[in-house]
Backbone:
């Protein structure tokens, strides 16, 4: 009886793992021209409808993204979109990514923290966001 109950508790865990794997391999069709990083990331968020993108305006300001055309997973699409921009994505949840300064850019970039009394503006782009 105990063995039977243990096997039942594994079923939801396996289902959750399989659901996560399905999301990782989900692909979207993208048609995003090269543009400002804020515009490119907004377009990415609209076209990958279940993906959330978190970014600081100070981090993406004055940066550009590549064109992204074709079918890509979120990870692969963000990699192509951000290549050479000085930005990179960090997966922070099953379908959530934070945009940060690329590791090799951090040493040469000015500090990204707000000065005392200043507030950093952060955007959260969710499914269907039209910003």
Residues:
């Amino acid at each position: 009886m105990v063995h039977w109950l243990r096997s039942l508790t594994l079923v939801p865990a396996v289902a959750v793992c399989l659901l996560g794997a399905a999301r990782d391999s989900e692909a979207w069709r993208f048609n995003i021209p090269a543009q400002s990083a804020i515009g490119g990331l907004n377009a990415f968020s609209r076209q990958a409808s279940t993906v959330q993108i978190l970014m600081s305006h100070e981090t993406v300001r004055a940066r550009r993204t590549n064109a992204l055309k074709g079918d890509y997973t979120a990870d692969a699409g963000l990699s192509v979109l951000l290549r050479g921009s000085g930005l990179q994505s960090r997966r922070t949840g099953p379908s959530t990514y934070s945009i940060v300064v690329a590791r090799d850019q951090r040493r040469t970039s000015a500090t990204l923290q707000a000065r005392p009394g200043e507030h950093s503006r952060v955007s959260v782009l969710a499914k269907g966001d039209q910003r």
